[in-house]
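Provenance

Sequences were taken from public entries as deposited. Structures were produced by running a predictor on each sequence independently, with no templates supplied. The record for Polynucleotide kinase-phosphatase from Streptomyces himalayensis subsp. himalayensis is shown for reference.
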Amino acid sequence: LDTGVVFGGKLTALRWPERELVDVPAEQVWYEPARPLATEAPGGHEGRPLDLADVHGRRVVETRHAGRVSVREENAAAALEVMSRFAVDPRLMPYLPPTMAPTATSRIEGYLEHPAEAFAQYAADGVARVVCEEKHMGSRAVALVCRDADVARERFGATATTGATTGDAVVTGSLYTRTGRPFFDDVTVTEEVLGRLRTAVTQAGLWEELETDWLLLDAELMPWSLKASGLLRTQYAAVGAASGAVFPDAIAVLEAAAARGAEVGDLLARQRERAADAAAFTDAYRRYCWTTDGLDGVRLAPFQVLAVQGRSLAALPHDGQLALIDRMVEHDVSGLLQTTRRLFVDTGDPASVQAGVDWWLEMTGRGGEGMVVKPVEAVARDGQGRLVQPGIKCRGREYLRIIYGPEYTRPDNLERLRGRFLGHKRSLALREFALGLEALDRLAAGEPLWRVHEAVFAVLALESEPVDPRL
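Predicted structure for Polynucleotide kinase-phosphatase:
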């Protein structure tokens, strides 16, 4: 393989069928190159910087878990816009999480989503044991936590000038959204979050136990209003304010008409129902908004350790994952970290399934968003060897008012919504899951940045496929 030995690079060979690269450094620079072998571009220190040709146009990414995954040219173009203008440094973004499919539409009266369908789906796929994890109403966050700035620099190429807003701040990792954007504009806030995470990891003894100097975590950052304030103001609060202004006067007029003997009973009843639905809608979104001051009031709920030095932990069973996370939360003295409540369910045991349903009803009845049902064996396959969904979300009846509107629970609206098509969303979730696993495997194997980034970029590209955003 040509890796520039004559220019002072390396003499490299590919060992087959092991698919291992073997190289030795050049004894000297035999011929001075016209351009330096290493560049300042991301990946340049590995001799192969990121290149537009790696992501431009129609792409096909080979994955270990799902074969070939295709990316359309128009989707790649949309991802390139986000990645080049808004995303964190690609060296600090080794993974993007997949989207998640909702449970099959329920036929139970009054419900669009119900966990009984999720348990039944996994049972049909041959998954005997699942874990139900509390769904936090926040924003998805991925945290790359390095033991110190030296590790971030040596392993990921991070520098004090990585990113446009870092200034002279020391960079020890990254914290970004599910589309790769930095979670906080101020790098000092990001570093404070990473510092608290690092302290918890240190106190829990995980650096030594996992034999690593860095961790990649999947998490939820709360409150939802921290990142979605614009959406709240322009969409949800506007609906709540309009209904609060209109319905009281309308109902008062109808009540006065009824008192005079006018036949407006049915209309009055309908408007009272609509007012109650609107009030429930307002209550639903307000549960996920609270005031924060700096990091005061901010909560981070990690739920999976994705990778460490030399290993992908994506296939570590979720009971083991949550045990590691619990130790981190236990050793956090700052109040930032929050545990994820969970319940294990045997899909073949009716009593266990009913306990899972009751747990969901109790949680959502108190205003919780819902839960995510996952196979305990994190990477599971059905009887035909195909990947099954890594997680199925079961959202609460009241929470879904935020998604489908205040009056979605009316029988005629529910019946119409039961015709929603889930096939594309499920396919998208599985393809993005396979790409995420591939990125983590490449990262763990120490493959160059362009190889890891190929799979990460593909996840972002698939996110621009047209799919119902309410699913």
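The chain has five domains: 1-37, 46-98+422-471, 105-136+340-410, 139-223+291-330, 226-286.
The longest helix spans residues 225-259.
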